[in-house]
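FAQ: What does the model actually see?

It sees only this:
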Amino acid sequence: MMPTERTLKGKHVLVTGGAGFIGSHLVDRLISEGVGRLTIIDDFFLGKSANLTEAYDRMPDLNVMGVDASDEKAVRKALMSLNTVDVVFDLAVIPLNTSLKYPQFSFETSVLITSIFCELLREGQFKTLVHFSSSEAYGSARTVPMSEDHPLDPHTPYAAAKAAGDHLVRSYVATFGVDALIVRPFNNYGPRQTDQQYAPIIPIMLRCVFEERVFSIFGDGQQTRDYIYVTDTARAVLDLYKHFRESGQVVNIASGQEISVVDLKTRIERVLGREVPCQYLDPRPGDVRRHRADITLLKSLIDFEPEVSIEEGLARTAEFYRERVNRSRNGAY
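And it is asked to produce this:
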């Protein structure tokens, strides 16, 4: 069968978690695609209105609804008020670090969100679901690079929820014939990533430098991740939606390169021109040892190469957090 291409132009798109880090960058990209209507559902657990400043400037009629995506009654009410929705990009989730402190809440809430939108898809409330998974669902690499066929071996309740959500979406595709795509991003970084509670490594490391605090490395620092700049992820997701693929397909989104914590520290030191003071602590529970994605499938489906190198991406990210820390010191954040 010859490949077909779908368009987002003129469609009504809903993004859960759209005020968050990846979500807000996806929103920016959707506006560039010329969507007809754009609705965001976000309870602002991690999301921030400030992340949508650019989006509001470019699309004044952007509709932001303060709705908890795990509240089925509220979600159904919201969808009823919107009339026709064509596509849902589902990014709403409880973050990894929260699951280490509140495991049951985190697992149940994340799976419930996926379940709600699978059911709404089955009922015909919208046409296509793009479900955001996570490389954490794989656990530590058994083989490198890690293809989509790599066993799912989650190490944390967050990862278990992601793995369960993927199985749930694929079961709805197999049983009810719904239209769904599962994207499995590896470690995203860039501007707007939370640098407060539940923050990941790059924002924490940058804030430690700018605030003259010591950065903590858990374990020996040789654990690796596959980092991808957030705008490359947003671009890849929309290109995957637009091009023909098999419903229920899972696709890795990553750079295909692995960087250790120690190497990441060195790269950030080069960007900043200064040392990152650090201390070594005991390993964190559930921390995966090694990640490097196989992006062969991604490249076979779309014309994909990361546009932002790790050096350029870290420089952009560092400047964003430098400005944020300066604003905080001046009482503006």
